[in-house]
């Protein structure tokens, strides 16, 4: 069973290899908590194909600032180190899976 990758400033380069979904979230954010099980499912579904990652904006504020995160949840999609798409707010599993599949 795949598990999402918890990103920090030290290991963020993981998201820059291949295709990655990065969920910027915080523990106090209701929509973020609603999205959490979807992120877990996507991590399992895309294991070995794409990375599914999370950044706790309370703990890693420098990454939130670096990527201009103004509201959460914000989901960034990376392909080969570049941000190619951004979604703000809780999203359906299908919308996120469709976007990941389009980048593979």
Automatic annotation (TrEMBL):
Annotated Gene3D superfamilies: Glutaredoxin (3.40.30.10)
Name the UniProt record assigns to this protein: Thioredoxin
Give the record's keywords alphabetically: Disulfide bond, Electron transport, Redox-active center, Transport
Q: Which residues cross the membrane?
A: none
InterPro entries tied to this protein = Thioredoxin, Thioredoxin-like_sf, Thioredoxin_CS, Thioredoxin_domain
Cite the PANTHER family for this sequence.
Answer: GEO12009P1 (PTHR45663)
- The Thioredoxin domain extends over 1-104
Family per record: Belongs to the thioredoxin family.
Q: Which domain of life is it from?
A: Bacteria
Organism (species): Campylobacter gastrosuis
């Amino acid at each position: 069973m795949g598990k999402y990758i918890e990103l920090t400033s030290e290991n963020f380069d993981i998201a820059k290899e291949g295709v990655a979904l990065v969920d910027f979230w915080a523990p106090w954010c209701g929509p973020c908590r609603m999205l959490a099980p979807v992120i877990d499912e996507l991590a399992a579904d895309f294991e070995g194909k794409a990375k599914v990652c999370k950044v706790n904006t309370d703990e890693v504020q420098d990454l939130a600032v670096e990527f201009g995160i103004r509201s959460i949840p914000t989901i960034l999609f990376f392909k080969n180190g570049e941000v190619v798409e951004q979604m703000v707010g809780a999203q359906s599993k299908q919308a996120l899976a469709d976007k990941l599949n389009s980048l593979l």
